[in-house]
Each structure stands twice: as C-alpha cells, then as structure tokens.
Design goal:
The protein has about 425 residues and is an alpha/beta fold. The protein is about 40% helix and about 15% strand. It has 14 helices and 16 strands. The strands form 4 sheets. A 7-stranded mixed β-sheet has the order 4-12-11-10-9-5-8, sandwiched between helices. Strands 1-2-3-15 form a 4-stranded mixed β-sheet. Strands 13-14-16 form a 3-stranded antiparallel β-sheet, with helices on one face. The longest helix has 22 residues, at about 325-345.
C-alpha cells in the first residue's frame, strides 16, 4: 500500500477508527490511486507541508477555493478583524449585502442571489427553485457532471438515453432518481430526443458550464447555445453550475467567456475564500419565488455569516486587483512546457486547459465526454501520481480531477514541477 510517511500512516489508522474511511470526503482517501493520504500540518502560498515534515507544491488548492494560494495575508487579516466584532449573528449584516452586490455586479445574468454554505446546497436549492417556478418535476443532468451530493443529483444514466435515471448511491430513493434524466454530454441528438419526448415535463437542465469533475471537458461549438435555446423553447430553466468555474475564469465565469445567459447560476469554492460558502442566483422573477417572498422554502442558520462573506470579499478584491490575466499567464506557461515535454517523450495524452484549470489525460482519444475520460491508462496515472508525490509535487489523487494553479504559484514553481514530471515519466 502506497503511503507518504510514517506519521501520516499512523494518523490515518487512528482516523479510520473514528471516521468512515478516515476522511470527511471520499476523494481524500486516495482510493483511486491505491494508497493512503498524507495529513497536512500547514500550508502557505503554493506549498503544503505534511505531518512528516515533507513539503509539496500543491495543484489542488483545497479543490478550488484557494485561488490566491494557501493562507494569504489578506484573508487571514480580514478574518482577524471581522471576528473581533462577532462570528455569526443570524440577523442581517453588512458583509452579506456587499457580497450579493459584488456577485450581481460581476455576473450579468444574476439579478438576485441567495447565499448558502456549500456548492451542494446551491445546486440542490436551485433545482428546488426551478421545480417550484415551473411547476414541473423532471430534471436533466449530464453523465460525468458533478453537482454535489443531494438526492436528485446522485443519479446514473439508465440503459438508454431516454430511460429514467437510477440511484447512483445507496440511500437515494428510486422515486427521486426517476425524476432525473441523465444524458451524455456533448450529444445534441440525445438532448433533442429527450425534449421531443418529455419537453413539457422538464423543469430544468443543470450543467457544469465546463465539466471539470470528470477530467476537464469542453463543450463542442454550439452545444451550450443549444442548451440555452432548447430550454427557452420548452419553458424549462437553464442552470449553470459554476461552483468550480465561477470567479476562477474571470468575473463572470464561463457564462462571461461564452457570452451566455443562464436563468440560474450556482457558485461556491472561490467565493468563500476557503470558508464554507455557496450561492445561487439569477433572474429576479425566478429568485423571488424563494421564501420569504415566494413559496419555495430555503434557509440556513449560518448562511451569509460575516466571516465567510468577508473572506470571500477579500479574495474577490485581490482577484480584481491582480487580475485573472495573471492566472491565465501562469496556465499558459505551464501548458507550453508540458506539451513540449509530453511530445518529446511520446506519451499518448490529451491536455485540456482554460485559465488556471488543467487536466492531463493519459489517452490519445479525443475527449468529448466522460466515456473518453474513462479510457485513460489508469496504471500509468497511478505510477505518475506516486512518482510526483515522492518528488514533492501534489496533483489530485484521481485521474478524474482538474488541477488548479493559484496566484501564489510562480514560473519557477511550474518549471520545477515540469522537471519532476520529466523525471517521473522517464522512469515509468
Ligand atoms: C465542488 C462542486 C460542487 C459541490 O460543492 P461542495 O461545496 O463540495 O458541496 C458542485 N458542483 C461543482 C461543479 C463542483 O465542482
């Protein structure tokens, strides 16, 4: 069993006695790479240090939120200041209004927004809202898109494109899963067939604006536009899940890059500055269906708490100042070096990148959807992962995750990483 260090190994054994699988979120258990995780002692900038004293250049950034790098002074100082005046009130505070104003200013499709505590809550609530607003029950999602772990969304495709979904987790009632239609991504014909069959029963399509939880996959030209036009035509809502892409790829996320206007959008990760935050927003007429204005119930004891809002605002402020361009510049530097290296080595691969998000696939198949992502050389990935970890480079412990570069990364960090990649690939 691969394991990073003796202290981490011991702690993981202890954790397993008191927590299922030793972790509070499954991917952290390193099952996809047949091993055990390291435990973090501290993290700063582009680096994390484990309890055995080993340091890694980190390409996870807490799975997306830490876009400024770890423990940035601006967020630490903000938290210190704000906490002095109270941590949570459960009554309106100034920070939550500022945060809502900022989101409405940056994302043109969002006229009103509601804050919550995770990406899962955001998508779950947006779907309830879409159902309440349209008076319809059915939902379309795409195979390979992840939207958190609520019941309607842990659904796998049925045997045919039009069959109803099956629960993808024990504990999800079949009756819920049946309301979710799971379609292949990037397949216009499947989408058109679903709407031709049951178009007037569909409340919404939910889609990761750029799918980034089963590798990083891009929409074919015209595909997102088709999602927009077909939902409009059939009176369904279009929900963009920008929990990962929002505030990472620019002020308005993918919808800004692609110039599209969804009815509702979901956010998380970057807007919380590393604290637990989610948000969903969109058309005012739809959002006003939420309680207390409307009949769709949604609430949260800690929603909009001043610490989380202030941390998020501090993070967005830094992004605005130092620019999304810098992140793209770092991403481009990394991409150029990596492409050159992989071509020289003759390793069959595909590489997708947008801004500071990237994914390397060990396959030469064109990446259209999750079926192609599944064709990777998993054994090669495992060896590559452990080789990199051993040399102090921490990439995601799964071939289905997207990598993140932060503003704390430097060109020398990226070049050091590429040297390690070169060495590891030479040995396997
Ligand atoms: C991470 C993620 C979620 C879930 O967010 P949590 O905060 O983990 O609940 C939902 N959608 C997408 C696209 C994500 O990347």
């Amino acid at each position: 069993m691969n394991s990073p260090g003796p202290l981490s190994k011991k702690m993981f054994a202890a954790a397993n006695l008191v927590t299922p699988g030793g972790v509070n979120s499954p991917v952290r258990a390193f099952k996809n790479v047949d091993g055990e995780p390291f435990f973090v002692r501290r993290a700063k900038g582009s680096r994390v240090e484990d309890i055995d004293g080993k340091t890694y250049i980190d390409y996870i950034g807490s799975w997306g939120p830490n876009i400024l790098g770890h423990a940035p002074a601006v967020i630490i100082n903000t938290l210190h200041e704000v906490a002095k005046d109270g941590i949570s009130f459960g009554i309106p505070n100034l920070f939550e209004v500022k945060m809502a104003q900022k989101i409405v200013e940056w994302v043109p499709s969002v006229e009103k927004v509601r804050m919550c505590n995770s990406g899962t809550e955001a998508t779950m609530s947006a779907i309830r809202l879409a159902r309440g607003f349209t008076g319809r029950d059915k939902l379309i999602k795409f195979d390979g898109c992840y939207h958190g772990h609520s019941d309607s969304l842990l659904v796998a495709a049925g045997s045919g494109a039009l069959t109803q979904g099956n629960p993808d987790s024990a504990g999800v009632p079949k009756a819920f899963a049946e309301k979710t239609i799971v379609l292949p991504y990037n397949d216009p014909a499947a989408l058109e067939a679903a709407f031709a069959a049951v178009g007037d029963e569909i409340a919404a399509i939910i889609v990761e604006s750029y799918p980034a939880n089963a590798g990083l996959v891009f929409p074919k030209p015209g595909y997102l536009e088709l999602l927009r036009s077909i939902t409009k035509k059939h009176g369904a809502l279009l929900i963009f899940d920008e929990v990962m892409t929002g505030f990472r790829l620019g002020k308005a996320g993918v919808q800004g890059l692609e110039n599209l206007t969804p009815d509702l959008s979901c956010f998380g990760k970057v807007i919380g500055g590393g604290l637990p935050v989610g948000a969903f927003g969109g058309r005012a007429d739809v959002m006003d269906f939420l309680a207390p204005n409307g009949p769709v119930y949604q609430a949260g004891t800690l929603s909009g708490n001043p610490l989380a809002m202030a941390a998020g605002l501090a993070q967005l402020g830094e992004l605005e100042k130092r620019g999304f361009e810098r992140l793209d510049q770092l991403g481009a530097h990394f991409e150029a070096g990596l492409r050159k290296l992989l071509d020289e080595k003759g390793v069959p691969h595909r590489f997708n990148r947008v801004g500071s998000m990237f994914c390397l696939f060990f396959t030469d198949r064109e990446i259209v959807n999750v079926k192609d992502v599944m064709q990777q050389d998993l054994e090669l990935f495992r060896k590559f992962f452990w080789g990199c970890l051993d040399k102090g480079i921490y990439i995601a412990p799964s071939p289905y995750e997207t990598g993140f570069i932060s503003l704390a990364h430097t060109e020398p960090d990226l070049d050091d990483t590429l040297s390690v990649f070169e060495e590891v690939l030479r040995k396997i």
